[in-house]
User: Fold this.
Amino acid sequence: MGLLDIFSRPQQAFARVEPAVTKPSEKEQAGPLATSFARNPRGGHPAAGLTPEALAVILRSSIDGSPRRYLELAEDMEERFIQYSSVLSSRKRAVRRLEISVKAAGNDAADLAEAELVREVVGSAAFRSVLIHLLDAIGKSYSAVEMIWDTRQKPWKPVKFKHRDPRFFEAPEADPEHLMLLNDHGREELWPYNWIVHRAKAKSGLTIRGGLARPAAWLYLFQAFNIKDWAIFAEAYGQPLRVGKFNPGASDLDKSVLLEAVHNIGADYAAIIPQAMAIEFVKAEITGSTDLYERRADWLDRQCSKLVLGQTGTTDSQSGSGYAQAKVHDDVREDIVDADAEELAATLNEQLVPALINFNFARVRKDYPEIVIGRPEEEDVDTMVKVAKAFGLSVKKDEAYGLSGFSIPEATDEVIDLSAQRAAPAPEDGQEEGNPPPKPGKPTKAALQAGQDAIAAAVEDQLAAEGWQPLVAPVVKGLAEEIAEATSPDEVKRILQRRASTLSVGELTDALARLSFGARLAGEVDEDLRDGR
Assistant:
C-alpha cells in the first residue's frame, strides 16, 4: 500500500517524497484573523433566547454542511450549563491523568532510537495540554491541533501544539468526512504532517453527529426553561396578589394612577392613591408541591451525567447508595475512560508518530513505535503469593521484585534486609545477654517461641496426615478426565453432585476446625512475640 498521510492519501517513499512534504512547515496555517469572517475568534451566542424551533434548525444545518452555529452553541453550553461543563471536564481529565508510555516497534538500535524520540516528544511540557485539547472532540465531535515544528536542526520536532477553533473547519457537501480549513476565499486542504485531528463518535454515522453536545443541547434547552420558570416562581412565591379598585366614574388618569400605585407596592412597598380608590391584598394560597422546579432540575442534571459519564453515582450521589452501587458506577465509568484513551492513542499513532519518524529516520520499516494511554494492570500480589505457597511453586527473583514495585539492588547499593528478625533490646546491667528478665505474670519470650513452634508442628502434622487433602483426594481424582468426556453442562453438574456426595463432610469439618483453632492460637502467640512479651 505504501506510505499514507494523515488523510489516508498515498505518498511516495521517504527518499522520493514530493518537495511539498519533505519537510514539515514551521509556519502556522490556521491562526485566527480578527479581520476575517471565516476565522474570526469572536463567535456568536445562539444559546441566548434559544427555542425548540431554533435548536432544530441549528442541528439540521450542522448536518447539511453549516456547523458554525452548532459549534457556537456547544461552546455556549459549556459556559451556561454547569452540569454539562462539570461532567465533560471530569471525563476529559480522567483520560488526561492516565499513564502515557511508548512501545518500541522492535529490539534493534534503530527501533529503540525511534521510540526514544517519540517518548521525548510526548513527555515534553508542550505536549501536556494536547490531550485535553484533542478530547474537546467528545463534545463537539472533532478537534484539531496544529503542530508548529522546529526544523533548524535534527531531530525535527513539533515544539508548539495549538488548538484551533472547530468553527475554522468545514467539510464539502460531497465528502462530509473530509475536514478542510476555511478562509475568506473558500476552503483549503490541511497541510500534511502539521495536524492532529481527533474524531470522537458517541455513535456510528457522520462525525458531526457523534458529539455529545448534540443530545446535551436538548437537556440544556429544557433546563434553561425550567430555571427561568423557577426564577419567576421564586420572585412571586409568598407575595399577596394586589388588586386595585376604582369607582365607576373614574377617569383614565385615575386608572393610570391606581395601576402605578399597584406596581409600586410590589417594587417599593409604598404608594399614594386618592381616597375614593382602594387596594386589596389577596393572600396567595400555594397548593401542591413547591419543589417541582428543583426536582425537575435534578432530574435533568442526572440525565446529563448519564449521557457524558454513563452513570450518575460519582456526580449525583443519592441517599441510600451503598458501596456495591458505587462500585458498579466506577466500573462503567472506567470502561468509558478506557475507550476514550484507546481512541486518542489511535489518533496519535496514526498522525503524530508517522510524521515524527518519517522526517527523522529515512529507512524502510514495517511498524512504528506505539503510544499507549491507560492505567497499568493491577496485580493481586497477595493471591499470587498464596497460590505459589499452596502449590509449592518456584518464583523468579526479578519477577518478585517487579510485583513488589522495588528495583533489584546493585552490588554497590546500600540495602536494608527486611527479612531479618528485629534485634533484641540490649540487656540491662546485671542481666545475662539474650536473657532479659521476664515481666511479672507474663510467659517468657523463649516459652512463647517454644509454644509457637509446637503449634506450628501440630498444624503441619494435621496437614500432612489427617488434613483436608486425604479427604478431598478421592473426590478430585480423575475429575478432569471425566468432565472432558461430558457432552453438556447438565452432565457436568451431575458428575460434580455425584462426586461431592462421596465426601465425608463431618470429617472434613472436624479437620478444618482443628486447623482453624491451631492457626488462631499461632497468630495470638505470634502477636505476643511481636509485642515483646
